[in-house]
Amino acid sequence: MNLSILKPLLITAALVAPLAQAQQQAEPAPAPAQQTVALPAMEWNPPALEPFVATYQAFYKGKEAGDATMRVVHSNGEQWRVDMAVRGKRGFAGVLGLNIEQSTVFNNETSIYTPLSQSTVKKALFMGKKVTGVYNWQAGSAQWQGDLKKERQQPIPLQRGDQSALLLNLSLMRDARPGKALSYRYVDVGRVRQHEYRVADATETVQVGDLSYDALRVYRTNGGNDETILWIANGVPTPVRILQRKDGQDDIDLRLVEYQGA
To answer: Cα torsion for 163, 167, 172, 173, to the nearest 10°?
Structure first.
């Protein structure tokens, strides 16, 4: 994910999306040996936007490498904020690009989440990097400043529906329906990318720790050799698993440990 959360996310569009390389076109491999359950789109109930705190275990190439916390907060009126903090264990932080904190302030406009501001802080032992950006909808442009190349500090014309990396995760939760194709314009940290996703036709059983979920698989179809796959479950406000794969192999894997209303 281009924090990518996580990108996004979005972390990772993945959750570590903003500080990673942009993804290119590919069809992700299906999750291995999982039972599918037919589910008409009318029976799928996306979660309402509500405050929550979710904790993930982070794995790197199959080994536990750290943890991540995603938080959604209601500020006032239409305004909300989504935060993600990813922390790597010693020995993994440099490899994963972990120890990152991200935040996006946004408006909930019923059918669309509109970003207002964004920040990314990457922490290291002896140094750190910070980038902040503003989505100025009145002026019709977004712009970032901080520890960025000069060309990525130039204003970017905005289009209605543009998403930050973190906000993309929430939009996928809201918009996913069995069999649906989804398209978003990703505008974050001085970059613009088109993200195309496909939702599986049926749920599948996903094991996360001691729990199992009937979850919909949502995967990016134009990510190239870098695949992004999310699994979302009815009644859970955040993805139960977020997986990045490179060249057909599992790379970064975030698995939900617990969540609760904030």
So the answer is: -150
